Backbone:
């Protein structure tokens, strides 16, 4: 089943007891590299025999990984972590089902999904740290458990940050996705029509697109105290049919009192204005005026 997500496919095969054990492993991994089987038994209050059956089922589904050294323990796989998040999103009535992949971002996997009213939505699964994981995998195997755990926490922090920002901006008539909810490293939002600006074939009114982006950055800065900090032609979606512009991808956004906030804002706009001039023929030599307009300096 190419294009679908393993952590989603297995959901229907998992019982509440399976999830309780999976949850317990996640919790125990905060304290050590592997979750010891005896602790899983003690905390779950399930019988040894039942725990063994559940663990071998979860292992077979590749949601956990067995390890034996001084004791027998388990670590959580990325699919296991996905399954935990998706199960919670299901229980919170945010995501009913997950469909095909919509693409792989720089630090995320994007999937089609549906909500409980049968509307199409998008889930963004944060994979912050994925690149460094691939590197480390080749090196020291025994680091795996802990390293996974650190990926889980950094990707959760990213998703939480993006969720909080999009929640602040929700219902303000701003050109951003409509956030639906989040859990762990996954956020759910509406489907934004269109393509990334880098892939747009034509802009009917380039100047309007540029204005929208500048006005958005200004509101973000002056009203919400934020700088996007990755505002590029990859993170702006353009719908050729409606000419709608949408700015996406907020985990790295910084508060304006961050010591580098102005550096990031300047970097965003020096790049973006240059790109826009070269590609869409609307240029401004005066980057500083634009930046001052966004910041609101006299
Ligand atoms: N709500 C959405 N609707 C439609 N496509 C989206 C949505 N969110 C993200 N995408 C697509 O997924 C890609 C990656 O998302 P993005 O938020 O930029 O994450 P990354 O940090 O991985 O770049 C985007 O470039 C865009 O094509
Ligand atoms: Mg992006």
Residues:
């Amino acid at each position: 089943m190419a294009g679908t997500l393993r952590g989603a496919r297995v959901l229907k095969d998992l019982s509440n007891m399976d999830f309780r054990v999976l949850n317990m492993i996640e919790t125990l991994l905060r304290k050590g590299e592997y979750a010891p089987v005896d602790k899983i038994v003690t905390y779950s209050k399930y019988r040894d025999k039942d725990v063994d059956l559940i663990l071998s089922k979860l292992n077979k589904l590749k949601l956990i990984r067995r390890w034996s050294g001084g004791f027998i323990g388990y670590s959580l796989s990325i699919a296991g972590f996905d399954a935990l998040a998706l199960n919670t999103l299901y229980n919170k009535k945010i995501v009913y089902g997950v469909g095909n992949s919509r693409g792989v971002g720089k630090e995320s996997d994007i999937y089609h999904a549906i909500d409980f009213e049968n509307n199409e939505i998008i889930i963004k699964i944060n994979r912050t740290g994925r690149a460094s994981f691939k590197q480390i995998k080749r090196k020291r195997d025994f680091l795996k458990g802990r390293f996974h755990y650190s990926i889980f926490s950094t990707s959760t922090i990213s998703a939480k940050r993006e969720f909080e920002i999009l929640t602040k901006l929700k219902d303000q008539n701003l050109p951003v996705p409509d956030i639906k909810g989040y859990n762990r490293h996954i956020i759910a939002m509406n489907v934004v029509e269109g393509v990334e600006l880098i892939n747009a074939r034509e802009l009917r009114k380039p100047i309007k697109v540029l204005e929208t982006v500048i006005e958005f950055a200004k509101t973000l800065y002056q009203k919400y105290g934020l700088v996007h900090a990755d505002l590029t032609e990859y993170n702006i979606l353009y719908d050729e049919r409606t000419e709608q512009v949408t700015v996406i991808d907020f985990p790295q956004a910084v508060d304006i009192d961050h010591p580098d906030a102005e550096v990031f804002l300047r970097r965003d706009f020096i790049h973006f204005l240059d790109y826009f001039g070269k590609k869409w023929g609307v240029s401004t030599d005066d980057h500083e005026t634009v930046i001052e307009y966004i910041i609101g300096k006299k």
Summary: The domain at 195-295 is CATH 1.10.510.10 (Transferase(Phosphotransferase); domain 1). The mean pLDDT is 93.
